[in-house]
Fold this sequence. Notes:
Blueprint: H1 2-14, H2 18-95, H3 103-112, H4 123-131, H5 139-177, E1 178-181, E2 184-187, H6 190-195, H7 197-240
Antiparallel strand pairs: 1-2
Helix pairs in contact: 2-3, 2-4, 2-7, 5-7
Amino acid sequence: MIKFFRKIRQNLINSNKLGKYILYAFGEIILVVIGILIALQINNWNETRKTRVLELSILEEIQQALVQDTLVINANIEYLLDKNSKSQELIAHIENKKPYKKRLDSLMMDLYYHRGYKTFNISAFDLLKENGFGIIKNDTLRKQITKHYNSDLSDIIGVFDRLEQINLIQGSNVYQNYKVAYGLIQPYDYQELLDNPKIFAPFYHFDTMNKAYYAGLNRFKSKIVIVLNSINSELEKRRNST
């Protein structure tokens, strides 16, 4: 093809047809420019396609992370419900000043024992940050996702951190009046526990904290569901458009 155009150009020069040569040269320049523009357009199209593929991949990872978080939260909520039931059994037994029984030792440990509720998956969001938030085409969805991780998640972790600090303070009080060993908590003097409300006070605190964790996880779960529904809707729409 290059030889063909070179031959035409050489013939025009040899025949002294300057006007036609200039017109030909101008046309050749236009063809080159058009070729460059087409190449740029194809390159832009490829880059856009790659960006959209990456966007969908990240959205799918965030979707899976939120589903995983929901499952973990559901398990923790069930755990807290069971803990609450045992808490009410323990408190009722003490408030009614019933005789000591061995089951109380395990009930106290169940109420005292705190396991972390902050096991949230943020790896997908880290991937989004790494690639830039602008990769998400839907402005509303992008704002929902960033708010969820930068605001809602930070808030719930902050609340739980403060609750844990309070738990540590109250936990130290347990060791003053109870023997803690082998997964059980046993009062040194059960009758004194019944007669002195201060000795049992930490367990009222743990009961209150249990309810706070339960309420916090439920509120956070409802926020996850909203974001997850938006992602599901966006993915469904995008898949149907391809």
